[in-house]
């Protein structure tokens, strides 16, 4: 049985325009020339649904699944979930994401540097989609020899990350394609 406050919360959530129902994320991607970029994007396909029987409706975007006749079906989304602890001062060096993957800092501050010069700094709860598998080495200039991205920790504390790898085939030149 739901309390009056739960019912009020549900009614108020319905009053929020659907445009407000978004979740931001950063997208690391490569263009057709192999240059890596980071774009600010939003998950916007959130639908008011039940996550489980008996649950109150909430806005969901079940990425990797399709919704039909009131149920979701998985399309072989996840291959691995990894938790990492990166020590203070950690730097990955220039590399590409091993698979299309979501990276979520759980604590600390984490920065990604791209070969186009763009930088994104993320804190706990922010999301990045790593999809720069088709990046190629930069031949000249400030980023000569760099490929993909360089991830570094900010400050003097360790950074804890959750990484969710997928079976998706990487896209090229399509920033924010999940919107």
From TrEMBL:
Chain ranges passing through the membrane: none
Signal peptide per UniProt: 1-20
UniProt superkingdom: Eukaryota
InterPro entries: RmlC-like_jellyroll (IPR014710), RmlC_Cupin_sf (IPR011051)
SUPFAM superfamilies (UniProt xref): RmlC-like cupins
Swiss-Prot/TrEMBL keywords: Signal
CDD domains: cupin_BLL0285-like
UniProt xrefs under Gene3D superfamilies: Jelly Rolls
Protein name: Cupin 2, conserved barrel
Lineage: Eukaryota, Fungi, Dikarya, Ascomycota, Pezizomycotina
């Amino acid at each position: 049985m739901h309390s009056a406050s739960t019912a009020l919360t549900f009614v108020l959530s319905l009053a929020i325009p659907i445009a407000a129902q978004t979740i931001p994320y950063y997208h690391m991607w490569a263009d057709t020339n192999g240059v890596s970029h980071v774009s600010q994007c939003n998950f916007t396909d959130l639908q008011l649904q039940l996550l489980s029987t008996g649950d109150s409706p909430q806005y969901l975007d079940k990425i990797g699944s399709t919704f039909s006749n009131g149920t979701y079906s998985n399309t072989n989304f996840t291959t691995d979930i990894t938790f990492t602890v990166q020590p203070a001062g950690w730097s990955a060096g220039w590399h590409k994401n091993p698979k299309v993957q979501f990276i979520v800092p759980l604590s600390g501050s984490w920065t990604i540097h791209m070969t186009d010069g763009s930088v994104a700094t993320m804190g706990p709860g922010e999301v990045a989609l790593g999809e720069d598998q088709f990046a190629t080495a930069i031949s000249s200039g400030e980023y000569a020899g760099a490929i993909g991205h360089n991830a570094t920790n900010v400050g003097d504390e360790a950074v804890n990350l959750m990484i969710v790898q997928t079976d998706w085939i990487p896209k090229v030149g399509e920033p924010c394609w999940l919107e």
